[in-house]
Amino acid sequence: MPISGFAEFVWIWDRMLGLGVPAHHRNMADWLEECWSTGRHELLLMAFRSSGKSTLVGLFCAWLLYRDANVRILVLAADLELAKKMVRNVKRIVERHPLLAGLVPGGSADWGTERFTVKRDAVLRDPSMQAVGIGGNITGSRADVVICDDVEVPKNSDTTHKRAELREKLSEIAYVLSPGGTQLYVGTPHSFYSIYADEVRPETGEAAPFLNGFSRFVLPIVNKHGTSNWPERFDAGAIAAIKARTTARKFQSQMMLEMVAPVAGMLDPAKLHFYDAAREIEHANGRLRLRIGDRNMVASACHFDPSFGSATGDGAVVACVYICDQGEYWLHDLAWLRASVVPEDTENARMDEASQLCAQVAAFMAGHHLPSVRVETNGIGRFLPNILRRELKSIGWAASVVEHHESTNKATRIEDAFGAVLGAGLLHVHEPVRKTPFVRQMREWHPDGKDHDDGLDAVAGCILSEPVRLPRVDMPLKRADWRAYGGIFNAENAFNP
């Protein structure tokens, strides 16, 4: 008897239940069978909520056992109960599907709700199918197919730490999967930084999307023509009703499969103007001009928000913002500072942590031709200004250090700083800043949130501080080499300010 194709296998099951096969289920079935037959082993099936995707994937697991009873399938889900739900569903299909009667074992076989083993020829330690929660122990398990069914949910994707932890746990699949095995992810996105994203988020530090190279089947509830992908169940009225009883962002995420945060952030990165133009510093006749693109920079602001001694808290951050002659802000650089352990035989072996941070700030200021820096003196910052003055003197850079005691709540000053500037479209951001945590912190920031906001606070300090006019003459006691800091050094003898 010829082996039934997957679409036929689904049709037989639905007909037995007195159901028809929706068009999108036929499309899913055809795609899964094509991927399997052509040897594509890394798959992502992303479909709108209540589309029946988990039911169809359960049938796919049963079909794989029908084709080869020795196949071992591991189901991972956000929690064990969700994974067990799929295992129970597949067990029920094996028991009732007309083509699978020969797979049901007899006697005291391994036939539970969390794991089961069909009648098979091979003697294998692992069951035919097993359920595991994402936090469960899979050490020592082996599988030919790993189904990741809704492994991303709001409770494990709403913070940077949780998303990193989720990715770390999912990376363990590589140690479970047999050579040539198949991974199938099934779900909907719950974050702008979803594991399902098809483009890299530079601010996360990732060089590629988490599921880079995976074959994708993406089915939103409304297609590109504006009509429903399941009109029999979700007509225009039903879709309108879903929109009415949920938030816009949740609808876009769960029904349209767009990578958006479930909670609207107050600081929208879409209002930033990114630029990749180099900074140009022109010297002539002892005077200078600083330009970015076709804009003349007339003032600057630099804010140093110190912090040290904690590996998990907010870091020490210094920010450089220029102000052009049209009153726009240009966030040119943002640096997270870390003190390091220096080998004993080096010149700075005995430099303490505070001195190391201040030395980095001094180099940052000289590199960006900053005439002044504001230092937040709350807490540990109270003794840093003098240390910073010493480090500036040691490298020969003449700049003022302004001590600032902050009395305003951090959330309030971030709102005050960014609100008007973003609303008016006045904030330009250098492309390299996109690779720092700054953009991510903007997107996820909330006044009552507990995620890191050190980059936001440093930039807010620049925006709220009194800008310092850039000098018309060289500031260093000894001329800095501008080329080392990524700017363009030009000499124009005919320069006339």
Main β sheet profile: 11 strands, mixed
| Structural Rg | 30 Å
Shape: elongated
- For the residues shown, what is the average pLDDT? 87
Structural notes for this entry:
The structure is a single chain. The longest helix has 17 residues, at 80-96. It is built from 13 helices and 18 strands. The chain has two domains: 6-254, Rossmann fold; 269-491, Nucleotidyltransferase, domain 5 (2-Layer Sandwich), CATH 3.30.420. Strands 8, 9, 10, 11, 12, 13, 14, 15, 16, 17 and 18 form an eleven-stranded mixed beta sheet that branches. Helix content is 30%, strand content 21%. With 497 residues, it is α/β, with parallel strands linked by helices. It starts with 5 loop residues before the first helix and ends in a 6-residue tail after the last strand.
Summarize the structure.
This protein has 497 residues and is α/β, with parallel strands linked by helices. 30% of the residues lie in helices and 21% in strands. The protein has 2 domains: 6-254, Rossmann fold, CATH 3.40.50; 269-491, Nucleotidyltransferase, domain 5 (2-Layer Sandwich), CATH 3.30.420.
Set down the secondary structure blueprint.
Layout: H1 6-16, H2 23-37, E1 42-47, H3 53-67, E2 73-77, H4 80-96, E3 115-116, E4 129-133, E5 143-149, H5 160-170, H6 173-176, E6 177-187, E7 215-219, H7 236-244, H8 248-254, E8 273-275, E9 279-284, E10 287-292, E11 295-305, E12 316-324, E13 329-337, H9 353-367, E14 372-376, H10 384-395, E15 400-404, H11 410-423, E16 427-430, H12 438-444, H13 454-464, E17 468-469, E18 488-491
Parallel strand pairs: 1-6, 1-7, 2-4, 2-5, 5-6, 8-16, 9-18, 11-14, 13-16, 14-15
Antiparallel strand pairs: 3-4, 9-10, 10-11, 11-12, 11-17, 12-13
Helix pairs in contact: 3-4, 9-10, 11-13
